[in-house]
Amino acid sequence: MNLERERVLARQLLQEGKKEKAMLLLKKKRYQEQLLDKTENQISNLERMVQDIEFTQIEMKVIEGLKIGNECLNKMHQVMSIEEVERIIGETQDAVEYQRQIDEILAGGLTEEDEDAILEELNTITQEQMELPEVPSEPLPEQIPGTFSLCALQLWLLVLLSSVQ
């Protein structure tokens, strides 16, 4: 290393009696050491800045990704309203019931006589067990506070029906 060589040279100058030249050489050596330390600190600071910039760029990409994701979700919510979902669920339930009826027909289930007998028995049982209450004379409120809306009730029934099947 150059600094070590200058120290050896300063020692030689002292042995030769050239104290001032040795002192000047040691000052030069000391200045170079300080300059090297400053340079190393500056390089270290620059490396830290580069790391900070890179991390900030990554953070910006994450934030941009979140922003795009939120915009996408909002657009999807605009396309699919609750009413649309309820309509689709209703149509799906109707289609499932229709397919069940087709399956029963294709399976060669019950004859028409059997169906009539079953319906007659059902009506008999229903009439025996059913005691209807009197119909109120005043009009019913549109929705009682604290109760379910018609749509929420339909959705609950659909969930219940699908869990039974």
Automatic annotation (TrEMBL):
<keyword id="KW-0175">Coiled coil</keyword>
<protein>
    <submittedName>
        <fullName>Charged multivesicular body protein 6</fullName>
    </submittedName>
</protein>
<keyword id="KW-0472">Membrane</keyword>
<keyword id="KW-0653">Protein transport</keyword>
<feature type="coiled-coil region">
    <location>
        <begin position="14"/>
        <end position="56"/>
    </location>
</feature>
<dbReference type="GO" id="GO:0005771">
    <property type="term" value="C:multivesicular body"/>
</dbReference>
<dbReference type="GO" id="GO:0006900">
    <property type="term" value="P:vesicle budding from membrane"/>
</dbReference>
<dbReference type="GO" id="GO:0015031">
    <property type="term" value="P:protein transport"/>
</dbReference>
<comment type="similarity">
    <text>Belongs to the SNF7 family.</text>
</comment>
<dbReference type="Pfam" id="PF03357">
    <property type="entry name" value="Snf7"/>
</dbReference>
<keyword id="KW-0813">Transport</keyword>
<dbReference type="InterPro" id="IPR005024">
    <property type="entry name" value="Snf7_fam"/>
</dbReference>
<keyword id="KW-0967">Endosome</keyword>
<dbReference type="GO" id="GO:0000815">
    <property type="term" value="C:ESCRT III complex"/>
</dbReference>
<dbReference type="GO" id="GO:0032511">
    <property type="term" value="P:late endosome to vacuole transport via multivesicular body sorting pathway"/>
</dbReference>
